[in-house]
Amino acid sequence: MKTVTLHPGKDGAGVVRRTVLPGGLRVVTETMPTVRSVAVGMWVGIGSRDEAPEHMGATHFLEHLLFKGTATRDAMEISASIEGIGGEINAFTAKEYTCYYARVLDEDLPVAVDVLADVVTSSLITADDVDSERGVILEEIAMHDDDPSDVVHEQFAAALYGDSPIGRPILGTVESINALGRDRIAEYYQRYYQPRRTVVSVAGNINHEQVVELVARAYERAGALGGPLECDPPRTSGPGAETHSGVSVLDRPTEQANLVLGTTGMSRTDERRFALGVLNSALGGGMSSRLFQEIREKRGLAYSAYSYTSAYADTGQFGIYVGCLPSKIDEVLKICRDEVSRVVEEGLTEEEILRGKGQMRGGLVLGLEDTGSRMSRIGKNELVYDELLSVDEVLARIEAVTPDELAAVAADVLNRPRTLAVIGPYGDKDFTTAIS
Amino acid sequence: MKTVTLHPGKDGAGVVRRTVLPGGLRVVTETMPTVRSVAVGMWVGIGSRDEAPEHMGATHFLEHLLFKGTATRDAMEISASIEGIGGEINAFTAKEYTCYYARVLDEDLPVAVDVLADVVTSSLITADDVDSERGVILEEIAMHDDDPSDVVHEQFAAALYGDSPIGRPILGTVESINALGRDRIAEYYQRYYQPRRTVVSVAGNINHEQVVELVARAYERAGALGGPLECDPPRTSGPGAETHSGVSVLDRPTEQANLVLGTTGMSRTDERRFALGVLNSALGGGMSSRLFQEIREKRGLAYSAYSYTSAYADTGQFGIYVGCLPSKIDEVLKICRDEVSRVVEEGLTEEEILRGKGQMRGGLVLGLEDTGSRMSRIGKNELVYDELLSVDEVLARIEAVTPDELAAVAADVLNRPRTLAVIGPYGDKDFTTAIS
Description:
By secondary structure, chain A is of the alpha+beta class.
């Protein structure tokens, strides 16, 4: 058992420490002595992009099933144990990891650790529960399908990455969910939910030694402390996910058209990601951004218009989203293309660069005042990065971005082949010129 | 100028003070000395239910226009001044009030106060801006219309309150927005945005005297300090909003049916509101609630199933929301009716009452750790309540709810005439038995 201090913090706050337990289970904590609560996350390094075709949707299905019952608690006991003390418990599945988390008053930390460790290590996954939860997941798919602003983002990923694990929907499809049986999901659980691939992250009014002891005890009780240190990396689709350029149109009688116009972005470890962040802020990151000003403020063509980046181990996305009345789409697409070209040709103004940096800086600092976001930051970092940058280090990297770097990143990313996803009442309207 | 301490706090944290400036402008603050940020809100006591028919949608339209330009700042300067320092600025319109807010680092408090006071007191509302923003609002309406889970809640309010201001959509309708001209909106602004009807609330790492001075200076510079202390209460539809029972079905080819089954609830000042809160938590407030257990955990009939309450000055709503595949709706409605009847006839179990209280308690405490939620609590309270209960007082009221009170509230609210709103592919299917 080895404990290291990753960041010394200041006056007892912001101290980040990591202990590795037998079997490779990692526990990272951050102290926030002025709050009364704690956030606890258990991060498993397995996501939807790790699914073989016969497992499509299994990662998310499993996330649901882990709340259905363990050797010692049924579904009601799992939720009641946390909700009865005024806490919340939930989970989410991403393309590269799955996270189970709870937020409770600091004195209730032992309950949160105990319940989360129980579901992560000791779920039963009965055939009955699989069948009942299948219905819930089919409802979730239907719900997403009714929201065009959700659909268009999945459509964009599918167009960009094609029919590969990272391009597929996290929820799976109606067909894949209907095809998944109990045994296949249980086997997936046994194989991938190992301590070696798990990070427990806790932020709030805590003491690192106490957290480590609680986690160790809970895992030991479950017989899950120890185990093989080596396990094959599950990733099936990296590095170097294949990408495609093209147009995907979904003909639907919606009131608004929804579109995503974008390209590949940068991987999570790309050194230029801070420059891409500043570029993204200036181009479409807020109300003062170019796209918002041109599309909404000056012309009233949309309510929602923004750009975004997302990053994975080996690839990333850069996209512009706009929702607008179907009749406005050609004008909106022209503005998007023109503004992107303008940035490539003329660069950003000094003012825009300053504002972009200010926005990134503020978003980071203001976004880290609650226990949940601190817990997420250290947990996700431990799982997917080699190093944990301190907040100050991240701020310094943002500050250090130069106009030349910005110009280079713009010339690279914004000139990549484009992909367009559109949902709206368009029949067989041809959008190919929009990406030329 | 009169300053009172509403709550003494503890060790310098949680101190709530109020100062009334000339003209009746109220400034309330709460100290949170351990954070690095501040949240500033300007609350105007005017909402969509205060609109005469010819003003329908004007409150929300105005909220948009206040970001378009003042005597000294254009739209770009308004957003850039806050975003450039890493802050966020936004606003929302409710049925009984409108709120403009910003969140910034504590050292930037003067900027936030200055910009918000500027937009609230000195917006120009030009005809050009009205026309351009009209397009944005029509987009917003179309966006909402594409989300059936949004639509069904508006549909429920319309069915419950009929064609009265409180039953109408906050955004207005395509027709009402197209009919609103510059002069009518400007007149609405002049008439209702008075200091007497405004509360400035600030929470974070602040000093009350400094906040008061900044607000006074900003309002004075705008010529908005002082003015008549008396103004007619604008409310046109209270007290005693008329309510209706009935069924509203919207036939749409959605993947999921969305339904709200409910009744009137309780007004914001009803002494029994804490009992209704506990009842609501136990019936549909979380994953351990009866409705979630019966509909989702046991039968897998829905992804989202919950109950909720909302409260206004003179009325309120109690509703159950479920999204489910269209073929499941009869079964879901039967469970909703059965569970409601069971609560009325048999009451809640001791365990459910404890859990309901724990959930309300925890939700309150955990929900008040950030500056934004503290700012909202004190600002909204100052505007709509006669007194500001401390968090401890609210916790004591929740704790004090007795089984007898719960039984009485259940027997009252859950036996009221019911209203059902449904959106889904139902043609002219008859749902009247569902509310009998």
